[in-house]
Amino acid sequence: MANEFNLAEHRKNRSKTYEKIDSFWHDLYDSEYALYDIAYMSKKEINDIQVATNRIGSIFFKTGQLLRGLPDETLRQLDIPEKALPFIRHRALPIETVVSRVDLVQTSEGLKVLELNSDTPTFEKEVFHVNGLMCKVFNVCDPNEGVAEKLGMEMRKALAEVLHRGNFTEKPKIVFTSHDTHEEDKLTTLYLMEVANIAAKYVPLHKLRIEKGVGLFDDEDNKIDVLYRQTYPLEHLIEDIGDEVGDPIGIQLLELVCSDKLIMLNPISAFLLQSKAVQSVIWGMKELDHPFFTQQEKQWIDQYFLPTYLEEDVFWKNNWKYVKKPSFGREGDTVSIFQGKKKLYEDQHKTYDKSLPVYQKYVDLPTKHIKTVNGLKEAKILIGSFLVNGKASGIGLRAGNQITDNNAYFLPVGIKQEGRE
């Protein structure tokens, strides 16, 4: 394998290929992000991922309906922030979230879900656009062929639904927003705006202005009807304070949403499913054989979900390997791995130290050799599978460590052809 890999030529081909792709961050933080390489999957493997994604999504979305009926105290126990409680039951759409992403791992027992990124999933441009371009370069079939058009169509459908509910008589003002200092967030947001193909404008977060109880305004003082905030997490938004001392602009924004003075996508309901503690509810109800889930759904939970709890006892008792993760963590931050009571690994970042810990049975991520600008490497593979308006959509691969962090690579994926390894 090493003999077939010419590093100088590889670097040259990578630069030449990725530099042709507009508005894409093939390098991030001065490091390689997008690999000039391809992983092969069979049509059956792709189909299995889509089936799993649909089933997992249906379980999460059904659980969302249950959570909305629970008292505040129970939601606090699932780490829903106190400041979010007055707004968390608001429902803008029949579906919980427009664009979400299921993180899956292929194990010896089949596909398992690690988590659902329901509120602010990124990775869209890589999966829905760049993957197809790389498949052309490597002359293989793209498993995501046609999904970008479907993504645009479903985004327009969601917008039409919320606008219809709002009884708009005039042309609505639609704004897509993100931090404009964060390249990945900004370019992902601009890509989604392009795919949506509607009359909208991009305005950075810091240029938006709230008039309490009246509305949200753009950089030209136009009142905004719809705010699309794909990359700005609601748990950060509720803590937002304005320039005036103590002005809780994040809370004021949610008040505008709940009083129908502003439509926000992804909707507030997406945040309800973002807590990883939700998986402990799903697993716990399955273990109790609760009638909320049908026998078929319990079978799916057994098949795809991992034992997940809010206590460590069961792992200590069985001396199982498990992962301790924050209910609202991101990018592997504040994650630890244990074998029984012995700590095997600890992430150096502690950003989410105050978040409620969730304990999930450990599974090994499969290993693959990847080609990087620094030579061949061994990496762990994580599957990101999108749900768009509740239906399975594009898939993509991240290649990194056992705990997938923000140093993980984007690895393009193509459909395996007969006789090809």
List descriptors.
421 residues, alpha+beta, six-stranded antiparallel β-sheet, five-stranded antiparallel β-sheet
What does this structure look like?
It is a single chain. It is built from twelve helices and 21 strands. The chain is of the alpha+beta class. Strands 4, 5, 17, 18, 19 and 20 form a six-stranded antiparallel β-sheet that branches. Strands 12-16-13-14-15 form a five-stranded antiparallel β-sheet. Strand 19 and strand 20 (409-411) form a beta hairpin. The relative contact order is 0.19.
SS field, number of helical segments: 12
Terminal residue distance? 12 Å
Report the helical percentage. Answer: 25-40%
Mean pLDDT: 93
Strand content: 15-25%
The tally of beta strands, per DSSP, is 21
Radius of gyration: 22 Å
Low-confidence stretches: none
SS-based class = alpha+beta
**Strand count, sense and closure of the main sheet?**
6 strands, antiparallel
Gross geometry: globular
